[in-house]
Structures are given as structure tokens and as C-alpha cells.
Protein 1
Amino acid sequence: MPGALDGVRVLDLSWGIAGPLGVLLLAEQGADVIKVEPPGGDPFRDYSGYAVWNRSRRSVTVDLKQPAGADAFRRLAADADVLVETFRPGVTDRLGIGYDALHELNPRLVYMSCPAYPDGHRLAQRPGYDALVQASSGQQWEQPGWRPGPIFLHMPMPSMGAMFLVPTGIITALIAREETGRGQHVRTSLFQGALLYTTQIWSWVPGASWQFYGTMAKTYPPGVHQEMIFEVADGKYVHSSIMSGLTPVKSQDAILGLPDPSDPERYMMLSPEERAELTPKRRAAYRQRERDGLIDEFRANNHAIEAVESMEVALGAGGSPHSQLVANDMIAEVDDPVLGHTTQVGVPIHLAGTPGAIRGPRPTPGQHNEEIFGELGYSPAEIAKFTGVA
């Protein structure tokens, strides 16, 4: 069955996380995505996530610094609907494939640019890796951690934010094209992806009280949320949420059989010293309880609690995956050309009338050179010259 974006051709020149993962969301809703790589392939191909992020598309290799390669790419762009690139501002113009040149060639083209920093930013011409954008955007300073001052964020927030902005911008421009008949230049960046999250919460950490650190800290020393992960019997774990909004019938301390149960309404306001006195007693009580029975008792008393599972369990290693993941088509078996048989996450957006689907594993570099460039009239010998494939 055709997907919702069937007939939309996307030229994907992006590297890293945001572009490939954002384009994946389009590819698996039916878009014909052609990954355009330099001879030898995308330099990030060895990154573990690439096996998933670059599936469901075809690949060609093109040396854009060769006149013949740039000309071949322009011929591809002449009939494309979307182009996605993640170069520093000005690079595509120097290659002769910038927005102005391609828009003149193909006025319907939606041209998405997602560099590290937006054009005009004081750092726009600097190397722009995710961690550096974390640093310059304030994210490393703003996130509470195991000590005062900045910390490294293990989640690549700038890229993960931009990953949502890339397909959103593209779809918005495609809808606008239905009215105007013309494409446009759509611009975002990793920097703007980082700021996407600060539109939801912004706190001035250097001036914050100890209560802020105690609530939000996610590393060492542990904050309130970290202290809600408990080991139970048989080396298993549970997470008991203290911010669920539920009104418990019995407190967790009463369920655990602790003397002098604490007031759950006051727990957030306890000082670190008071929590340090209470928490070891709770941990000892939790370790005496079998996980499933404890979860049932907590839920019966209106507590929000969940088993802490590993990704191996969630994805079904060593047994059947969670039934809900199977029911939601979130488990997929994919034969990767390099890794072999793999278990991957499935398509995360479900359309009832035009369902998305995985359309094949990630291609090898230039796997579709002859197929795609042959359609443009190039001979195998001509293709070999500008693709770097002997």
C-alpha cells in the first residue's frame, strides 16, 4: 500500500543525527529518499545508530567537487521535491548547489538547511558537532548535575530537537506549495534544536536554591527522582513516581511496613539530610519484596510504579518482546547488509489509511548509482567517473 508521502522524492545530503533521523520519518511514510554520499560513503557510517537512521532509502555516491558530479546532482534535483543538507552556511553555494541556483532550476523544490548554527550566527563557520552546540547554547550550563557548573549531556539534545524540526519544516513547506505552486528555503539548525527544549522550561541554575538541585539532579549526588529507583528481590528494580498527581490510599512506607511512615506530601520538601536518613530504610524494605507482587500492591493503593526493564528485555532479546510493542508494530526484524540480522525499532507514527513501513535496510554506499543515474541517461562509464566507483 502506498504511504502518505508516496511520490515525494527527497535528496538527502545530511550527515550526523538530526538530518538522517528526521528524513527517516519521511522515508517510512512513503517518500522516495535518495541518500547522496561522497565517494567512499558518509563518514558517519560506522556510528551505531546509522544502521537504523539510514534505512528505507536508496544511495548514490557523487563527487560534488567535480563539475560532472555537480552537474549530475543538479539533474537529480531538477525533478526532486525536497533537498536536505547539513553543511555550514555557504558550502552548497560554493559547490553550485545552493538554494538560489537550485530554486531557479526547480522552483517547486523545498530546500531544507540544517547546519549546526543558523546563517548569520557568530559561530556559523565553526565546526558544529552536537556537544559543541550543547556548550555554546547554554545547555551544559543549564542542566543540573553532580556538581555546580556545566556538565556534559549524554542525550544529544541539539540533534534530537532539530530531528523534529527537519520533517516539520519540510511538511509545512510542502503544504504551502499546494497553495503557491512554489518551494522555498526552510532553515533550522542544531542550535535551534537545543532551544526547542528551553521553550518548555527555563530556569536560572546559578541562582537556584538547593531544592532545585535536589529535585532535578540526574547524576551524583542523586536528586529526588534518582532516589525513587529501588532494588527489589532477585536483583530486579522498580521506579516509584512521586510526581504522578495520584492520591495514595496508603503511603509507600506503610505498604513497606516501615514504622512511622513519612508524609508523602512533605517528601519533596525534605532536606538532603532528612532524605539520607529515610532512604536506606526504604531500600532495605524494598529488597525484601518480590517485584510483581509489590507492583500490584502499590497500584491497588493508587501509586504510580513501574518495573525498570533493560532495552534487551523491551526489544525481546532471549525471548518474546513485550506484547504491546508487537501490537504497536514497534519491533522490526531487518537484515542489514553489514550487521546481518538485526532487531530494530519499528515505524513510530501510525496512519490508519496510509500506514508507514520500513522499506529496506540502510543501503551500501552507491548501491543505486546505476539504477538512479541510469534513469537520467548516464552510461555506466560516465557514472563511474563522478561517483568514485571504479
Protein 2
Amino acid sequence: MNPARLFQSSLAPDDLELLFQEVRGISEKLGEPLSDADATVQSMPDASPAKWHLAHTTWFFEAMVLSPHLPEYQPFDERFSFLFNSYYETLGARQPRPRRGMVTRPALDEIYKYRKHVDAAVGRLLRSRPGPEVSELVELGCHHEQQHQELLLTDILHLFAQNPIRPAYRDPSPVAVETQTPTPLSFTAFDGGIVEIGHDGAGFAFDSEGPRHRVLTEPFRLADRLVTNAEWMEFIADRGYRSSLLWLSEGWARVLAEDWSGPLYWELRDGQYWAMTLRGFQPVDPTAPVAHVSYFEADAFATWAGKRLPTETEWEAATRSLGPVGNFLDTGRLRPKPASPRTTGLQQAFGDVWEWTRSPFSPYPRFRAVEGAVGEYNGKFMSGQFVLRGGSCVTPPGHIRASYRNFFPAHTRWQFSGLRLAEDA
């Protein structure tokens, strides 16, 4: 990848403007159910207030696109650069991440005014038919905002789960538990050999998705669907959270220190498991994919099942011909969906839950960070994290692809993260 360029944008100017307007509009719709208090509180250091997500994505366009490329642009408020920068060291000091919830002012309505101010300026810039550098930055900003749309929802879920009255982000209907015929677990075999993984260069991709390169793989088999809640209940019943031999050392330390006994948000009430969802506190659907489990839990379950987690190379090689179709944000479901009992072959590769892989998030061969502030985007996080693939039920459609690499620390549980089993052939 040329460090002077992000990627080769394939969008025509009018299509880029439409993408910008659509993405910005979706963020505001996601904020509609929230009060100013909902959007201000920060439930833990790893999460951010919804108001901060709405403002930070706006600051990204202001700092990365407008200030360098629109000479007459006047910032909405100079102080916002300190409040809403995230981790871009080259762009100055910032509010510490664990204290983002302390920013009670500006209020939510002021953030929406900020968004309109920036949107109008970006619109003027795009209508001037700027060069490829600006177009690439705007397209990057749109995909960056889609990442924060997902984070806004996962952070709101974590916040509402702390509230004793268990408020619903969206109307509780339709009900969580549906009548489903359990889908038997089966495996599809894949040949080994040399495979190419990484983005092919056509259209948008984040820098960490390339360069495309060859990897030697051994033959393997991949489960045709995701691990379900019912199977996780069997793991719990078999004292999976009490069997130290199943766990990596650091994971077992987490189990003991934080008293893990099931996925995040699960509670046992009168012999039935319930969980907090974006549609309120609801019974756990046994046939739906398990969600909100850490890498440590996923690895322990795989060990208990006599299997393992796939590598990211295996996952991409197995799914690249499927196309990114699945249960995403646009379905409005806002929670994982059971696999179809009438479908054969790999299911649920995209959407529903992010799938943990056993691969650490590290640079591909020949990776070079892009020059300038945008070079801080992914490369600086390539240490101590594991790769997840496939997207989730709150991932915006059109944002995901087979080469997409999400990443989180191994203890992370508040994302819609689950697993698919693999085994050596």
C-alpha cells in the first residue's frame, strides 16, 4: 500500500455525497430515542457516551477534511477539538477517555447543531468536485462513522444494563424467543494449500486489511453455524466456568477476579436465563447465537467442545465467496437471529455476532501506515488484541466485507461477539 494514499476510491462524486448524507442521517436516527442524560453518561472506561460518538465522528470530518482542505472553513467551536479528539496524538491534547462522561456541556441539541454546521461545509466541499485525496478522506470518514454507529449501540446497551429498571432502547417487540427447530451442528471441509487473503484493492478498505498476501494453510473444517445459547447453557451446566483446565491462564484469572458465570448480561431467574438486550430485558433464545462472550470464554468453550477457534485466514478463505449478506443493523432486529434449519453449508458468516478468531491483530506482510494523522488509525493498535470477523446485528450494511478485521482485547465482552468452531481436517 502506498503510504501517501489511503485506498483507490471507486465512488463518483454524486455517489460519495449521497453516501455521506445517508451515513450522517443514520447516526442521527440512532440518537433519536435518547434523552440528553442517556447520551451523556459513560458506563465504563471502555465505552463512550452517545453524545461523544455523535460529536467525535463530526470532529473527524472537521479535523481531517475541512480544516486542511476548505480554506474558508470556520470551526463551530474551537474547544471541541479538545473534547472530541479520540487518540490522534498528532492533532493535539484531548479529554481522557475514562472521563468522557464528565462532559455534561455542550448539551445534545448543541451537538446536533455542530453536526449540521459540519455537514453543510462538507457538502460545499464535495460539490466543488475535490481531488482524490479529499474524496478518500470523506469516504474514510463515512466508514469511520459507521464503526461508531455500532459502538453507540453497544455502549448504550451496556449503559442501560446498569439501570435497575432495564430500559429498552427500542420497543420490546418482536419477542426474543421464537419457535425454531434446532439446527444440528455440522462441519464443512476446506482444502489446505496456499490462499490469498486481504483486500483485493477494489473500493474501500481500512489500511489493516492489506496488503493482500499468500498464506499456507493446512486442511480444516469449519462449523456450518455459530455456537448457540443452548450449547452455551450446556457448557455452564457442565461447570465450564469452574474448570480451570479449560481456560488460558489470564482468562481463568478473569473468571476468578470478576466472578464470570455466563455471558455478559445473562441472569438466571426461576430456572430460566434472561438477558439485557437493546429491546429490554428478555428471555434468552436457546437457538440464537450466543453473544457478549470474550475471547477467553470462546477459547474455553472450544476446548470444552473438543474443537478450536478458526484462524482469520481460515475464516476469510471459507467465506470470501459468500457475499456480505446477513442480519445487520438495517433489519431492525438488534439482536442475533437463529440459523435456518432449511439451509446447508456455511450460515451466519456475516451479521448476527462478530466471530472471535485465534489470530492476534498484527500487521500483514509489507504493511505500512499511511502518512499523517490518519496513519494513527489502526497500526498503533496492533498489539495485545485478537481479530474478530463477520460483523454483527448492529453493524451497518455495506460496511462489512470478507477481508474486514475487527479487533479487541481478549477480555472484551460488551460487543456482540460470539464464535464458530473449527477443527483440523
